[in-house]
Inverse folding.
């Protein structure tokens, strides 16, 4: 269920730093929002990579080890 605080974002539970994420399959962009308000966007993320991220036991760890290390990531807010 999307977080009411961040429209369009899926809430990340059990994370100290990450608050939510959303994926745009047309643009192939995975956007992550942190509890401190920072928002990062990874480009070139395939639907399979998004699924692996969404289903990961630790989305924070998956973001750092699988997404950030293999995609261009920029801070957008």
């Amino acid at each position: 269920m999307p977080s009411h605080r961040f429209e369009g974002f899926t809430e990340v539970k059990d994370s100290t730093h990450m608050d939510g994420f959303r994926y745009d399959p047309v643009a192939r962009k995975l956007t992550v929002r942190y509890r401190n308000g920072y928002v990062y966007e990874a480009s070139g993320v395939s639907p399979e990579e998004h699924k692996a991220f969404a289903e990961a036991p630790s989305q924070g760890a998956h973001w750092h080890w699988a997404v950030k290390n293999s995609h261009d990531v920029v801070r957008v807010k």
